[in-house]
Amino acid sequence: MTAAQVKAFIPVDITDAMLVSSNLAEPAGTEPAWVAGTYAEFDQVSVITANSHLVYESLENGNTDNPSTLPRTKWILKSYTNRWRQFEWNRGLPSVGGSPMITTIRPGSRINAVVLIGIKAAVAEVIVQDGIGGAEVLHITQDLLARHAMTPYEIAFSPFIYETVFATFDVPPVADPVVTVRLTHPDGVCQLDRFAIGMAVDIGEVEWNTVAEAENYSDITYEAGKAVFDPAPSMPGLEMQLEIEAKRVNRALQFKGLANGKAVVWSAMHNIDNYRQMHVLIGPYQRFRFTTQNHRLSQINLKIRGI
């Protein structure tokens, strides 16, 4: 596999039956199960049923005896529960837990990719076994501590940081993969935005001049010579030109159809340390345009919005 190959997959939706174990409590202390009573504005409660692990937030004070799912004027759906947020593809909220934070899943189908996005940990360990208690087919321990220092001054004074992305597309396609992720951090707290697995496909070869951007949704109000900044997190984006052999175009077209309107995990140049962080993200495509160059080659213009 070339380092510049773009890999993509639609992450497997994890069900109750697929979650083998997790050391994250459910419900978490900040999301107690809903019971009849009176809730204040911003109180959060959880409603946990089969394959549904949801957190709702009260919209008003004196919210008395109203089930959290109805009426909509009383509650708003906020997210999955803390244990399950790492498997929530359409919202960017992390699962947070003590160190070590350990999750094991069993998808029941072959996979070749494991991608972790939005990691807060010093070390990420990924283990894949062939069945419960079966032989290990992959074991990667990734030290996430990094220090991007080049000059003597930077070496002396630049702070250490932690990488936030892990990606492997080398999972042996065993029939019954069991995937364990173990995160550790010296400050005792870990978090993970996305724990995604799936069967990745090659989309094409990256041409140079990729564009990684961050769209800023902060609000700045100007009034009488004053500016008020209301900060909001920026959202990542990625735009790439790809080259693809004509014999692979129909496969890419098929993936385009399957991925339409869905959160997809994308990775380009994940084997290049300096580029991995900005070329791995999850989100829908905004543009997936094919241009036929000749009978042998086509180009793909791909634009992705991160979630």
- For the termini, the CA-CA separation is 27 Å
Number of strands: 26
Shape type:
globular
Number of helices: 3
User: Whole-number radius of gyration?
Assistant: 22 Å
In CATH, the topology of the domain at 5-11 and 201-305 is named Elongation Factor Tu (Ef-tu), domain 3
Give a structural overview.
It is built from three helices and 26 strands. Among the domains are: 112 residues, Elongation Factor Tu (Ef-tu), domain 3, CATH 2.40.30; 54 residues. The model has no long low-confidence stretch (mean pLDDT 92). The longest helix has 11 residues. The chain is mainly beta and 307 residues long. Strands 1, 18, 19, 22, 23, 24, 25 and 26 form an eight-stranded antiparallel beta sheet that branches.
Which key features would you list for this structure?
307 residues, mainly beta, Elongation Factor Tu (Ef-tu), domain 3, eight-stranded antiparallel beta sheet, 3 helices, 8% helix, globular
List the helices and strands and how they pair.
Elements (H helix, E strand, L loop, with lengths): L4 E5 L9 E4 L15 E2 L4 E6 L2 E7 L4 E2 L10 E6 L14 E4 L2 E5 L7 E8 L2 E8 L5 E8 L1 E2 L5 H6 L3 E2 L2 E4 L8 E8 L4 E10 L2 E6 L4 E5 L3 E5 L2 E5 L4 E11 L3 H11 L4 E4 L5 H7 E4 L1 E8 L4 E9 L2
Antiparallel strand pairs: 1-18, 1-23, 2-9, 3-6, 4-5, 5-7, 8-17, 9-16, 10-15, 10-17, 11-12, 11-16, 13-14, 18-22, 19-22, 20-21, 22-26, 23-24, 25-26
